[in-house]
Amino acid sequence: MEAQTAWYATYQELADTSPAHGTAAHRRRLQELSRRIAGHPYWQTAAGTPAARMALKELARAKAQS
To answer: pLDDT digits over 1-19, tens only?
Structure first.
């Protein structure tokens, strides 16, 4: 959940950053977090269903917004 929460926080930072101030670091961070999330061994198990993925995203989004 930590990586997914960090993904949402980084995405919001990217959205709030003016292109004139540089967005490359935020984009690199999103790519790195996306790799960590997608490559996690949990998603290779039977429990790693699309419904579980959506539940993780919803929890992480709520945590990132609080």
So the answer is: 899 999 999 999 999 999 8
